[in-house]
Structures are given as C-alpha cells and as structure tokens.
C-alpha cells in the first residue's frame, strides 16, 4: 500500500507541474518574443541622445515575391544621416490584386556588419499587413544608427548602408 501512495503522490505532482507549466506558457512565450523580437514583437529601444561624428548614405530597397501582387515603394530612395540622428520614413504598399491579401516583410542590411548598428524604434517587418483590393497604406520605419559604429574598425571605410525589405505572402495565414 505504501508504494501505491508514492505512485499517487508522484502522479499528482506531475499533473500539478504540467498544469503550472501550461499556465506559465503564454507569459513565458510573450517574454521570449519581447526579448528576441520573434514573430514581429518590437524590441523596446532606448533612443540615445549621443550624436556621432560620421555621416552615412542610407539607401532604401524593396523586393516583392512573385506570389504577392503588391507594389511597395520607399518614401525616398536614400537619406544622408549622421550617427545618432533619429530618422522617420515610410514605405507605401498597394495591393494590385482583386482580393484581400496579407503580406509580411523581412529585412536585410548591407553590409551585414552594419546591421548591429541599425536600431529600429518602429518597423513593419515581420508583422502581417492585410490590404484590400487596390488598398494603399503607409508603413512607418523609425530608426537610428548607433554612434558606436564610429569606433568599429571593420566599418571605418563604409559610408553607404542599404536597408532592404523583401515582401512575401504571409504563410502564417494559409
């Protein structure tokens, strides 16, 4: 009979532990997303008041997958900015199809070594955008270049950085 009590206590402990894990799963997942930016959760960035010494030409680029019938254009082709300056721009997207579509964008920074210094405060990347037929929207992008890039010896000769967005049909909704 003593063994049966041990097994019962063990089973109840496992059930309580699993129940506790299931209750903690959502808050833990949300915390994971906040820390990593997974699934488009924006990271909170404290904007620095430090202004750097270098100027960069930032080029804006878009690519659209053939399965997404959208037109996406940046507000401007390029900007000349100083490190530490807070930049606001937007991309205009238009659904060219006759039905509702949902697209999502990924981004890339060239040269890749500069990506660590492009700090986005607000971005539409990794977040699904639903557009009705012929609907147009402006998708904001706010970022700055971390002034610590001025001290990176690998990037001392870099004066142009390209921020490129690639838009795809949102596969999460299929």
Summarize the structure.
The protein is of the alpha+beta class and 174 residues long.
Topology:
Elements: H1 2-36, E1 55-64, E2 70-74, E3 78-82, E4 87-95, E5 101-110, E6 118-122, E7 129-131, E8 136-145, E9 160-169
Parallel strand pairs: 1-9
Antiparallel strand pairs: 1-3, 2-4, 4-8, 5-7, 5-9, 6-8
Structural description of this entry:
The chain is α+β, with helices and mostly antiparallel strands. The protein has two domains: 2-36; 55-173, Sandwich (Ctag/Cox11 (Pfam 04442)), CATH 2.60.370. The protein contains one helix and nine strands; from the N terminus they run H-E-E-E-E-E-E-E-E-E. Strands 3-1-9-5-7 form a five-stranded mixed sheet, with no helix packed on it. A four-stranded antiparallel sheet has the order 2-4-8-6, with no helix packed on it. The N and C termini lie far apart (54 Å). Mean pLDDT is 84; it is low at 38-44.
Keywords:
single chain; four-stranded antiparallel β-sheet; alpha+beta; five-stranded mixed β-sheet; 2 domains; flat; 174 residues
């Amino acid at each position: 009979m003593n063994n049966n009590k041990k097994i019962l206590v063990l089973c109840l402990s496992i059930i309580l532990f699993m129940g506790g894990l299931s209750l903690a799963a959502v808050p833990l997942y949300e915390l994971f997303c906040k820390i990593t930016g997974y699934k488009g959760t924006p990271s909170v960035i404290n904007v620095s008041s430090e202004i750097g010494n270098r100027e960069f030409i930032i080029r804006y680029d878009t690519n659209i997958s053939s399965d997404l019938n959208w037109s996406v254009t940046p507000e401007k082709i390029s900007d000349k900015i100083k490190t530490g300056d807070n930049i606001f721009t937007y991309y205009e997207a238009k659904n060219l199809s006759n039905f509702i579509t949902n697209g999502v964008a990924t981004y890339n920074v060239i040269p890749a070594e500069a990506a660590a210094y492009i700090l986005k405060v607000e971005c539409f990347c990794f977040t699904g955008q639903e557009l009705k037929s012929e609907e147009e929207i402006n998708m904001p992008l706010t970022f700055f270049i971390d002034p610590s890039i001025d001290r990176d010896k690998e990037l001392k000769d870099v004066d142009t950085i390209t921020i490129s967005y690639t838009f795809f049909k949102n596969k999460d909704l299929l």
